[in-house]
UniProtKB/TrEMBL annotation:
Protein name as catalogued: Signal recognition particle receptor FtsY
Organism field: Lactococcus termiticola
Species lineage: Bacteria, Bacillati, Bacillota, Bacilli, Lactobacillales
Enzyme class: hydrolase
Domain SRP54-type proteins GTP-binding, first and last residues per copy: 382-395
Catalytic activity: GTP + H2O = GDP + phosphate + H(+)
Recorded superkingdom: Bacteria
Amino acid sequence: MGLFDRLFGGNKEEKQVEEVVEAVEVVSEATSESQSERMMASSSASESQSETRSETQMASQSAVYSMTASESIAARLSEMQGSAKAEPKLAEPVSVVETPAPEPEQTIEAKYEASLKKTRSSFGERFNAFLANFRSVDEDFFEDLEETLIMSDVGVELAMAITEELRGEARLAKAKSQDALRALIVEKIVDKFDEEQLPSELNLQEGLSIFLFVGVNGVGKTTTIGKLASRYKKEGKKVLLAAADTFRAGAIDQLVEWGNRSAAEVVTKPAGSDPASVVFDAVQKAKAEGYDVLLVDTAGRLQNKDNLMKELEKIGKIIKREVPEAPHDTILALDATTGQNAIQQAKEFSAVTPITGIALTKLDGSAKGGIVLSIVQSLKIPVKLVGLGEKIEDLTDFDEEYFVKGLFKELL
Ligand SMILES: Nc1nc2c(ncn2[C@@H]2O[C@H](COP(=O)(O)OP(=O)(O)OP(=O)(O)O)[C@@H](O)[C@H]2O)c(=O)[nH]1
């Protein structure tokens, strides 16, 4: 079963009928309960002379919690059909003073959902605007669809591929409603995304694993290394960090700070030192002292590509000389808020050094999360890590299902 069917599958009409039946059952139970509650309330009111509240007051309060069965079913149906015409009229709620409960820890799925809120609503708004203009499935329709997809940061190549495949989709021509069209388009996007079976986990080894991190300044490279170090430390691993971004003293200090926060050791040399010599020392230490994981931070000056290429080549050679199958992953950190600019960076870095995975940072603040689709489909590079906030625990492995659900659930 494909990803779309797994997440959103099933016959929609059947599901709606089931939901209505459920609604009838729930409401009839609730109605009989609230009727008996009301009967008890009114009998106790007439029994007790000292009762200060009048029966009218009580009736209006109980109306807050009860609505008739037909009103409730109409409300459920109107929710499903997106129509507001059958809204039940409720009385003003009674104010209740509540002590705030301690915030429960968010699940990863909930974090994805919250982080993708901006992306989801910008996607939704664009799609609804596009479908509002719908007259027929003709050439204008496909042109508008392609434009909508490009504007949603899906990327030009993927937008063209999706539109092209939908041109040959017979179900599209038969679709009668905006909802049916929307579902078919989303299904196609998810299917395209699901086509690429790329490894989404870091290539962790039994012995020493060496992960090299590259990316331009400010994208969240050092933060990602710090968060990952903390994760591995919590798992009981011996973790070493190498501050090979010797271009800026601030970058070294920042990695040392993350080392302190995650209780991981850091190999440093003064700013201006040869980055490859920091890496050499770090690999030696990792091997000699039995470390499990070595995370290497590098400088990412794209404006000087030749130097960057030479620097990364030299670092790569030194790592390989000591551990031939390493680096086990070269992770490019990309800032999700920069949209298509991130795709450009991925292309430029790929030309400098082979990238085996992406760490997509700041997804929590981005309205451009659609670039994940573009990275995976157009560049064929797996997203392996996702930054969902600034806190040390806000880093997760990329989860395709949570991502797709977080992106499209309100559209279907
Ligand atoms: N909201 C949010 N902020 C993040 C995330 N990851 C990193 N940041 C923030 O992004 C800013 C830059 O992060 P750094 O880790 O310093 O970026 P860098 O790529 O190492 O930059 P240099 O050290 O200058 O090379 C910091 O303020 C981080 O707190 C994330 O997933 N979500």
